Amino acid sequence: MFGKDIYWYGVQAVSLLESGKLHSPDHSPVFHIVALLFRIFGVSDETLVVFQILTAAWLTISIFLSRFLMMEAQKGFGIFSLGIPSILVFVLGFLYPKQSWALGFLILSVGFSFPIPTITSLFSRTTPPPTSSSSSYFLFTSLHRFQLRRITSVFFFIFAFWFHPMVALLGFGVLVLYQIPEKFYPVILFVTFLLPFLFPEDPNGRFYSDNYIFPITAAFALAGIGILWDWAFLVFGKSEPKFYRMRRALAFFGFLLLFPIFHFADIQYRILLSLILLTQIFSHWNVFQIMVWTVSTGLWIFTMFTNPYSFRYSYEQMWIPGESMASVPNNGLLIAHHGFCEYYHFQFRKDCLSFEPDTKAISELPQGTEIYRAVYGIRFDNLLASRDENKIPFFSSIQPLGEYQLVLEKDWKLYRSWLEKRNSKLLQVAKSWKNPYKERPDFIKRKHKNGL
After folding, report:
1. What is the per-residue pLDDT across 354-383, written as a single tens digit (0 to 9) for each?
2. Would you state the torsion angle of the CA atoms of residues 73, 79, 85, 86, taken in this order, to the nearest 10 degrees?
């Protein structure tokens, strides 16, 4: 299985089928699509792959249709002008399906609305009024081009917002930059540079000051050199004159992502992927574009083969430890890293949390059960040999399960405090994504409470 979130879609869809509601509140209908596929093909890993393929196909169709809408009046237009889909339709479709469905609707919204009028053009008097002989043609054109296409564009934009608000806000941001003359870009650049320093230092918020990661470096760490190649052509690439203004807006937006606007490194990475894919519908397909596409595809495939865990977790190594953990009678809640949690929850229908257990999690714990921790990245021997100042072992029980060790959460907290006091090298592993140590941020708690 490719995708670091794919099993979460399975968890949500199974919850819909079994209880009629989502496991975690979410207004996006994408989980209903997965639930429908489960009804047709059954609940399995293979059905999740079908969903990923369907998502990639949806992105491909939306790009082709959007390019067709914008090029239908072009002289010499042929099917070759639609080009070849970027490999990013598979990257996005397999890694971020929810975002991809929304992005497909946004791409169609752009296709139906283009050419997008600028604010200044609405007040321009350079267009002569229609003559009496051409008035009926003018009215028909207005109805076709403005009323039907613009209404359709708004319709698709609403769907993009419904599937994933972040994607709709991205589209709105591009539209705003499209309307702003380029002479104001330096001012926007300066404000964007200052923005991260103005965020409060509150990790519980959706935005906070966390500017120690350079976003383009983080993107390279997540996806390899292919993302740098695509980013370079996003920012410095060219297009046909009729697409120039929109193309410059997309390029400038991509350049702004150099700054740590969001503290989640992968949020800017996802936005960057979306911008690159949006650019595809404005690319003039020719020999040079074929060269760009070939190099991009080769670089992404190279990263997938040399560093596959950038795109997936080692799911093959999770079945045996997951099955053993699920069979522990008093295991009421498991704390584990994000990928293992989703896999474990989907395969064994047992509760798992990829955050430090908070008041809500503890209150929902079934009576007579305990909270366990799936320790990842620390050897069994290290845990077994650890003792406090009185030579008393920290762990009342340790179950070795390959790369994972199953311990009680209360024992793990004592052990982690001991590592902090000693400033041990193992603390870097004990307090990392491998072993969650932070509580759910406030905005996630609000989502569980209010569904937003």
Report:
1. 999 988 888 889 999 999 999 999 999 999
2. -70
